[in-house]
Predict the structure.
Amino acid sequence: MPEFVMQANIAHYKELLGSETDRDKIAALRKLLAEEEAKLAEWRAKNRRTPEKK
């Protein structure tokens, strides 16, 4: 999954959390947010760019 999609998902979950009042939905959104943040961190660790040598 491309990085920008994961970033968009994270932003979307955060936006939903800002207006949600149902405890069960909040818990589900927090879980989804944590999972997406973990995926993004893993993707970034695997795709870390190394500086080019001159």
About this structure: The chain has a mean pLDDT of 94. The chain has two helices and no strands. The CA atoms of residues 16 and 29 lie 8 Å apart. The helical segments are 3-19, 23-46.
